[in-house]
Amino acid sequence: MAQQEGRQPAQHQDTQPGREGAMTPRPQATRPEYRGSGKLRDKVCLITGGDSGIGRATAVLFAREGGRIGFVYLEEDDDAEETKRLVEAEGQPCIAIRGDITGRDTCRQAVERIVGEHGRIDVLVNNAAEQHPQQSFEDITPEQLERTFRTNIFGYFHMAQAALPHMKEGAVIVNTTSVTAYKGNAMLIDYASTKGAIVAFTRSLSQHLAGRGIRVNAVAPGPIWTPLIPSTFPADKVAEFGTDVPMGRPGQPEEVATCFVFLASGDSSYMTGQVLHPNGGTVVNG
User: Fold this and answer.
1) N or C, which end of the chain has less CB nearby within 10 Å?
2) Percent of the residues in the chain that have a pLDDT greater than 90, as a whole number
C-alpha cells in the first residue's frame, strides 16, 4: 500500500541525478497488491529514466503485465541493477542501457539494442527528466536552460524518432509531463516550460500518428517521492514536499505507474492526445 504519512524525513543528496538507494524511506515501486492480467503480454517496452522512481515502478508493473523490458539510465548503476533485478523477479527479460538521452546517437543506439534483441518496439515511455530550481529567473544560465531542454524535451523527440521506424499499428507512446505544465512553478521556470512543451508534443504527435494506428498519451504527475526530490531541494523543503496538495502527502511511484499501464494497454484503446493527472487532488482542468 502507498505510504500515507504527510512528511518525509529531512534529507538531501548533493548530486543529480539522485540515488534511490540513498533515500529514507525508499520510494514504493512494486505495489504488491497489484495483480497482472497479461495486458502487455509479449509487448516490447522501452523506458527512459527507468532506473528509479516512476520509471522503475513502471518497468515493474509492465513486467507484471507480461512486457519485455528495456530501459535507459544516465549513470546510476546500482539503482539500474536493482530495477533489472525487480523486473526479472517478475519473470520477464530486462535490458539496462547506460547513456545520456540528450544525445541523438544514444537514443538510436538504445533502440537498436532493443530491436536487435526483440525485433520491434511496442511501447515507448519517455520519462527521463531533470530540474534545477533558481530563486531568481535571472539566475537561469544559458547552460542550465539548454541542458534542461535537451533532457526533458529534445530527448523525447530523439527517442520517438529513433523508435518509430520499429513501431507498427497498435504501438503506443507515453510521455511524462508534470502538474507544473498546468500550474507553473516560480522556482522551476525552465523545467515547467519543458513540461508544457511535452503536453504540446503529445497532442501534436498523436494527431500525426493517428492514421498509422499509433497512440500517443501522457501522464502529468504531481509531487511524487523520487530521487529527483532530495537531489533537487534542501533538506527542509524535502521534509515538507507534497504536503500542500489536497491529499496532504506526496505520491509514490507505484501510484503513478498504474496510469502508464492503462495508457500502454488496450484498456485505453480510444484515447490518444490525452493526459492523466495523478497529483494528489490538484485540479488543473487540462
Assistant:
1) N
2) 82
